[in-house]
Structures are given as structure tokens and as C-alpha cells.
Amino acid sequence: MENNKKxxxxxxxxxxxxxxxxxxxxxIVISILFKNGFFLSKNLKExxxxxxxxxxxxxxAELTLNNRLEELQYLKRKNKILFGIIGCLSKQFRDxxxxxxxxxxxxxxxxxxEIPNFIKNAIIGKPYIxxxxxxxxxxxxxxxxxxxxxxTFLSITRGCNNMCTFCVVPFTRGREISSNxxxxxxxxxxxxxxxxxxxxxLGQNVxxxxxxxMDFSDLLNFLAPEIPFMRIRFSTSNPHDMSDKILxxxxxxxxxxxxxxxxxxxxSNKILKLMNRKYxxxxxxxxxxxxxxxxxxxxxxxxxxxxxCNEEEKDHQDTIDLMNExxxxxxxxxxxxxxxxxxxxxxxxxxxxxxxxxxxxxEIIDLQKKHSLFRMKExxxxxxxxxxxxxxxxxxQYWYGRNTQNLVIVFPxxxxxxxxxxxxxxxxxxxxxLIGKIYKDxxx
Length: 444
Ligand code: 5AD
Ligand code: SF4
Prior knowledge:
Elements: H1 2-9, E1 11-16, H2 20-35, E2 39-40, E3 49-54, H3 59-71, H4 73-78, E4 82-87, H5 91-100, E5 105-107, H6 115-123, E6 129-130, E7 151-155, E8 157-158, H7 169-173, E9 177-178, H8 181-193, E10 198-202, E11 210-211, E12 214-215, H9 216-226, E13 231-235, H10 244-252, E14 259-261, H11 269-274, H12 281-294, E15 299-306, H13 313-326, E16 330-335, H14 343-347, H15 354-377, E17 383-391, E18 398-402, E19 408-412, E20 421-429, E21 433-441
Helix pairs in contact: 8-9, 9-10, 13-15
The structure holds 5'-deoxyadenosine and iron/sulfur cluster.
The site of iron/sulfur cluster (SF4) has 10 residues, from α7.
């Protein structure tokens, strides 16, 4: 009886908003809470503590969380439940939430080890504590509690020093810090032994990874032979820091996936300068050419933002021209929203009307769809190595997996299992999904 009571009082639930980094952070938080006697509840309504892992990168992400908090207030009124916000949170959004007094505690991404104390304080009625701990953490001493099987993520750098003028990350996550390479390699080996088949190394800017004299290319070069049958992916790359050495290493190791996510943000030099992106359109295009020369089979994806401050129609056309020149495999596209605390918020005018941002966004999304279809068609008739990750969402008789280029492939299940590698012959395609049938086994 006593035991049951304790379990109930210490149960928590985490809701994730935002990027892969947040999911990876939640796995660290779960591990910290487990060590401190807390229990993960599968059901939000049964938990006593609800953690919201928030994202402030765009205004829309904050609005989504705000609506969710309103929606769940009834739980708070009914039971004695604690609401805690973790993750990226702009100061302005935190102040709004503080005023509404609906949150019991806030924990910044460098203070997760203190979460048990935040909870204990909130229980005895000391709410709204916010740690100003600015010392960046790598959490290398914590073994994350991985929520996924087969494929997972591991942060190798945290924070960002780039100061792109639109971006809130340097303010919410602090300065960049890299994890010890021995920890990264040991953790990947441990995952490998536990049956994982793919690891994605995460960072706001993985290419600037630095540990003493070791850079990102050295890390990849050491890691790849240690886990020879495990796929290695990484995200995100910054065009400014992508070196020839990194490209050579990707090309050299068969288990390093042939896909680079290379956010360009804009095709206009004027806008890139205003964004403080530290490369020009010409440099970016020559980098793409280099990638295609060194790793011919490499897929390339992007992030592009429309409607940044002072973006005129001709700047937008520059972006369209750049997309036409590169013809990316896929991309993530957003319209700009001004983020409190950033340089752009303080010094530049968010002067592109909402409807123009949306119109330009639609144009680039439509164009990308065309390019994606064109690129996908290049795979029809070819045989691809696929890691089976799960059931296709649209048809439970089909498996879902990805090739080395990170393109989604679906095919009839036959007698294969999740976690197996197999060769699939591509027979048809849409702009988002390759469709095929199993060709033969891969021996791994
Ligand atoms: N408004 C819109 N999109 C943004 N991004 C970052 N900051 C903003 C912002 N203020 C986009 C960029 C980045 C991706 C993760 O989110 O394209 O690469
Ligand atoms: Fe933000 Fe730029 Fe750092 Fe990416 S590189 S997290 S966009 S500041």
C-alpha cells in the first residue's frame, strides 16, 4: 500500500515539442528522474507531474504549447498536479506564463540535473523557480533512457555560437559545448550491442564539433569502424563549417549515411548577410558541387525561410533560382517569425507582410515538391539497401524504412522483421515516398 502511494506521487509524463534535440533531451531527463525515484507514466491523466519540453524557435511552436496548457488546466484544477516547463523557452514567453501563474517550475536545458530539486520545491509550494545556470552541460555522465528501438539520437554538441540574427537558440541553449569523444564512441558501442542499427549524432552545428585537437571529421573517422554494421547519420550541418575533410570521411566509410542536411535559409546574398549566415550564395553552390563530386550518391536537404526582414521580391526570386539550380531531394520550409531577444528582433524591422510571407512560402513548397518528385524518380528501377523501421502508416501489410540517403521506402512485409536490413527494388514513387518490393537479403 505504502509502495503504491509512493509510485503514484512520483509519476511523471513528458510531452515533446520541437526538434530531435528536444526528444534526445527528454531521454536524458527521464534517466535523471529514474535515478531519483520517479516513475514514467504512460498516461498523462495518471501522472502527478507533467513536463512540457518546449520549443521557442518559431512563434507557432509557442502558441501550440500555450493552447495545450490552457486545454490541460482542468487537470490542474481537479487534481494536485505539477506542471513543469523544460527545454527552449524565450524569456518573453516565460514571463507570459509566469503572469498566468499556471506553471509550477521552469528548468533550462543546462539544469536538467536539478529537476528533482525543482519538483521537491514545487511540492512544498516554492513555485516559479528559474535556474539561471549558464554553465553549459554535456550530460556525458548520464545514460539516456532511449524511447525508441532500432534507431536513435545522441547529442554530440549542445548550444550554438553562430548568432544567426533570426535565431533564439543561442539565447535558450547557451554557448556551444562538445561532448567527450570517448563518451560518444562508448555510448554508440553500447547501443550497437543492445541491437540498435542507426545512430543520428545531433548538434545545432555538428561540423563545429571540437574536443582538444579532434574535429568532427576525426570523430566520424574514429567512430565508423567501431560500429561497422550500424548506420551513422548527423544533423545539422552549417554550410560555413562543412570542410572537405568531413566530405572525404563520409565518402570513405560505408556505414556513414550519404545524406547531408544543409540549411541555406535564403538564396539572396543581401538576406544571408542580414541573417549573419557567414557564407554567400556562390560559396554555398560551390559547396554543393563539391559534395556531389566527392560523394556522388549523396542526397541533400535544406531549411529555407521566407519573409525575413527586408526580403524583397527579387531576393525571393534569388531563393527560387538557387532551388532550381540545386534541385534538393527534400527540405523544410518556414515563414519568418520574429523572436524576442534576437538581433533581428531588436535591430531589424519584421517588415514583410504576413500574406506575402505565406505566398512566398507556398511558392517554395510547391517548387520543392516538383524537385522532390524529380529526384525520387531517379531511384525508380534501382535497388536500395533499406533498414526496416516499422509499419507503413498507410498500409499495415507494408514495412517502412529508409535508404542511406534518408529517403522513405515502403514495400510488402513478406517474412521480414523490424531491424533487418534488406535490398528493395524501387518500382514507383511519389514526391515523398519510394515504393518497391524486396529484392534479396542483406547479410549483416
Ligand atoms: N522564424 C522562422 N523560422 C526559423 N528558423 C529558425 N529561426 C526561425 C525564425 N525566427 C528555422 C530555420 C532553421 C530551422 C531549424 O528553423 O530555417 O534552420
Ligand atoms: Fe540558430 Fe544559426 Fe545556431 Fe542554427 S546555426 S542554431 S540557426 S544560431
